[in-house]
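Thread amino acids onto this structure.
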């Protein structure tokens, strides 16, 4: 019988949330939980054995208001998402796989994430990138080997963005989940997403 991988779920909440005007991680969802708490619960429900939340500029505020999962501080958040992913990986380098979900990718189906984890366990992939209608989604799974390689990448202006770096490593999977392409940045977008959430 194949042994299950030990997956670490990483919620990325390291940005400045400048267009939102407040930390996205602390936005209140329709069920009363903060958005970061909701995303952390989603990763756990989908099969991640442990979950961390990576925060940057607003780390102190986020950490003071969230207890569902450890909140890791990324002191280098200004250098972009790559550094937040690296912080999440370093929090538990013993994990065999890392499922990465940005806090503002809202509405992902549990079945989407469980399918990604099942595919990771059954294929031995280095990385998995879901697609929707041929477009790259904003969720990512990394094997431990690929995660170790990513830790060696220095975040500076001459290096490729995370999306560009991961592309040669990743197997892509077309999935019927439009939320894979979501990226909630403004209060207006958040209000629209909440209405869709409630109306199901």
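Threaded sequence (200 positions):
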């Amino acid at each position: 019988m194949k042994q299950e991988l030990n997956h670490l779920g990483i919620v990325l909440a390291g940005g400045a949330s400048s267009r939102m005007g407040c930390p996205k991680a602390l936005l209140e969802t329709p069920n009363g939980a903060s958005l970061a708490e909701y995303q952390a619960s989603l990763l756990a429900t989908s099969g991640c054995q442990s979950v961390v939340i990576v925060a940057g500029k607003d780390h102190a505020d986020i950490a003071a208001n969230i207890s569902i999962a450890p909140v890791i501080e990324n002191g280098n958040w200004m250098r972009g998402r790559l550094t937040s992913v690296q912080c999440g990986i370093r929090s538990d380098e013993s994990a065999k796989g890392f499922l990465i979900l940005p806090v503002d990718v809202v509405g992902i189906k549990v079945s989407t994430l469980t399918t990604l984890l099942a595919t990771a366990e059954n294929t031995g992939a280095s990385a998995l990138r879901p697609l929707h209608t041929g477009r790259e989604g904003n969720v990512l799974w990394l094997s431990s080997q690929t995660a170790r390689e990513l830790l060696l990448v220095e975040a500076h202006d001459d290096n490729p963005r995370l999306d560009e770096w991961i592309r040669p490593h990743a197997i892509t999977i077309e999935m019927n989940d439009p939320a894979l392409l979501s990226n909630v940045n403004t209060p207006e977008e958040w209000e629209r997403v909440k209405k869709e959430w409630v109306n199901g």
